[in-house]
Amino acid sequence: MSETLRFGLHALGSADRAVVMLGDSPTVTSSVIERFVSAPPGSRAVYHGRPGHPVVLGASQIDGLRSLTGDKGARGLLDGPTIECSDLCSGLDVDTPEDLELLRAAWRTL
After folding, report:
1. What per-residue confidence (pLDDT) applies to 90?
2. Which of 24, 47, 87, 97 would you call most buried, defined as having the most Cβ atoms within 10 angstroms of its Cβ?
3. CA-CA distance, 86 to 49, in Å (whole number)?
4. Spatial separation of the C-alpha atoms in residues 45 and 43, rounded to whole Å
5. Rounded CA gap, 74 and 79, in Å?
6. 10-22: b (≥16 Cβ within 10 Å) or e
């Protein structure tokens, strides 16, 4: 996880701010991401109080990520406010076949 984050930060060049999303969160829409464009660094989404993505990385979080190793993300570096987003989506990320089935079941009810 840390290597993926560092790779992405390297691709950003000299940017001092980034909004980070997971690739396996199909319910998160552009409306959710818009809430984070102007959010303070260290902010993160919550869904009914459950931490999620996106998160906002500022200069101090980016510097901290440069020294992370292994299967660690930015969680310990996020010291900003939480932003409730459950009014826009579930924030579910799909890591397992069971998660995928939960997502399919939710879509069938729409």
Report:
1. 85
2. 47
3. 9
4. 7
5. 10
6. eeeeeeeebbbbb
Say if strands 44-47 and 82-84 run parallel, antiparallel, or are unpaired: parallel
Its domain, for residue 7, covers 2-108
Instruction: Identify the CA nearest to 42 among candidates 15, 14, 72, 65.
Output: 65
Structural domain count, the chain: 1
Pairwise CA distance, residues 54 & 23, whole Å: 11
Q: Please report, for the domain that includes residue 43, its CATH number.
A: 3.90.550.10
Angle at 23 (CA atoms; ends 22, 29), nearest 5 degrees:
80
Quickly list H helices, the chain.
Answer: 2-12, 30-34, 59-65, 97-108
Contacts of 56 (CB under 8 A, 6+ apart): 17, 18, 19, 20, 36, 39, 40, 41, 42, 43, 44, 80
Residue 85 to residue 87: CA distance in whole angstroms? 5
* Maximum Cα interatomic distance, the chain, rounded to a whole number of Å: 44
